Amino acid sequence: MQQLRKERSRDDHGPWSVPTEADGCRLPCNDVAVSWRPSSEFPGNVYKGEGIVIGSPDKVWECLKPVPNGLRVKWDNNVKRFELLEQITEDISVCRTVTPSAAMGIIAPRDFVDVFLVKQYEDGSISSNATNVTHPGCPPQSGYVRGFNHACGCICVPVSGEPNKTQVFSFFQTDLGGLLPRSVVDSFFPSSMAEFYSNLAKAVRSLKDL
Q: What is the reported pTM?
């Protein structure tokens, strides 16, 4: 599960490309860098987001951590419900994430079953790492297209000398399943990730001091 930290700087799978409006993308936040490159795990792309969020790492993590009844479902427009299927250890769990329809209804509601690992590092960084898994307690369900997350997650990194700022890296390489036009997928993820950072920043600002 060290892959996300390595992805921050590795170039062994080719350079990162930056989406533009010509690709059908709308990036509403100039403080967020979103890039992509072909995934080595499935016939799609891995998307990387990077931005500075005003707030301590503890505050940012409180908004991001993957737990049932957490704050994530309140601010993240792409997370409608988050369910715990199995708690394996204190830091490892299997969860189901339900997402709403998107892209003006072109993308139907999805659900994803993933194993999550939460890890803290000596430098104060905290990461949530996930990848798809099959679980007997959650077969595909009517009304949802089963999607598959390949190695993905978020990393909260303290900003040296600025305790009220957090650098947030996010990585997504998601097979949405179904028969979606490639153009819809390619425009959805960059715009969605930029919105993710904007909504995260608002959620952190709304928290009282921890």
A: 0.85
